[in-house]
Write a structure and sequence with these properties.
Number of helices: 8
CATH topology: Aldehyde Oxidoreductase, domain 3
Distance between the termini: 47 Å
CATH superfamily: Aldehyde oxidase/xanthine dehydrogenase, a/b hammerhead
Structural class: alpha+beta
CATH class: Alpha Beta
Oligomer: single chain
Number of domains: 1
Helix content: 10-25%
Length: 299
């Protein structure tokens, strides 16, 4: 052990990275690959009244356009919540919304095309009729502005969690000669990893097996969730490969909707499908952190 403590250690992965030999999902190419792009909402809160994809479908090179109703028709399940506490209220969240958008960048439809450029162009041709609704900005406002993001959850409060001895706490504060209070705002942040998220899926129709390459920090959990909740592919027929992810900082731990959309489209079309997030798309769609408003008091 004395040979290592206090010594500068070389990282074993560095040689191939500095030689440009990193293995990233965005660089993966498979024969007959199609490319997926996601139509995202410019509104923070709005009812989706209708979606007209006729112009996009008429564009040369467009293979298909799908909406949330297509996923429902195929029996694709909602994304589960990984945090379970007593009396929690969990909203239903599908890979593509079927009723209204709930944040800027929410997923409305997807295009699959022969190239990433055609798919991106086709997004501009999809006409979505929105009915804008009031929006709340900031963590504090979400519970006080009267905006109900999920109709089934009042004041947007998923759960209330208490720990400790409330009676002893109240007694200590009531008897204290002085009470000091401090309110802290820990701002929302975006991880901004070096490599944005990406996914490539290949479906074997003969064996009914799916392979998904994804920039995941937790591929084993994603595989379980895909099998049990979202795509219902038997776990022994579902293989997830997570090569070099290009940084994550926790943002690449969850099971993302694109990890549903890409393999679902690959199975639907029976050809490999690829999606790579742009930097601006990552800011809209990656799981964000913090945005805490904390009030502390000391007797």
């Amino acid at each position: 052990m004395s040979n290592y403590i206090g010594q500068s250690m070389k990282r074993v992965e560095d040689p191939r990275f500095i030689q440009g030999k990193g293995r990233y999902v965005a660089n993966l190419k498979l024969p007959n690959m199609a490319y997926l792009a996601v139509k995202r909402s410019p509104y923070a809160h709005a009812i989706v009244k209708s979606i007209d994809a006729s112009a996009a479908l008429a564009l040369d090179g467009v293979i298909a356009v799908y909406t949330g109703q297509d996923l429902l028709a195929d029996g694709v399940g909602a994304l589960p919540c990984g945090w379970q506490v007593p009396n929690i209220k969990i909203p239903v969240q599908y890979a593509l919304t079927v009723d209204k958008v709930r944040h800027v960048g929410d997923r409305v439809a997807v295009v699959v095309a022969e190239s990433a450029y055609i798919a991106a162009d086709a997004l501009e041709l999809i006409e979505v009729d929105y009915e804008p609704l009031p929006a709340a900005i900031g963590a504090r406002n979400t519970t006080s502005a009267g905006v109900r993001v999920h109709d089934e959850i009042e004041n947007n409060v998923s759960y209330e969690w208490e720990i400790g001895d409330k009676a002893a706490h109240d007694k200590a504060f009531a008897e204290a000669a002085h009470v000091v209070e401090l309110e802290l705002i820990n701002q929302r942040l975006i991880a901004t990893a070096m490599e944005p998220r990406a996914a490539v899926a290949q479906w074997n129709e003969f064996t009914e097996e799916m392979t998904l390459w994804t920039t995941s920090q937790n591929p084993n959990l994603t595989r379980v969730v895909m099998s049990a909740f979202t795509l219902q592919i038997p776990e022994h027929k579902l293989r997830l490969i997570s090569p070099d992810v290009g940084g994550g900082f926790g943002s690449k731990i969850p099971h993302y909707p694109e990890e549903i959309l890409v393999p679902w489209a690959a199975r639907k079309l029976n050809r490999p499908v690829k999606w790579v997030s742009s930097r601006s798309e990552a800011i809209l769609s990656d799981t964000q952190g913090r945005d805490h408003v904390t009030k502390r008091g000391w007797p």
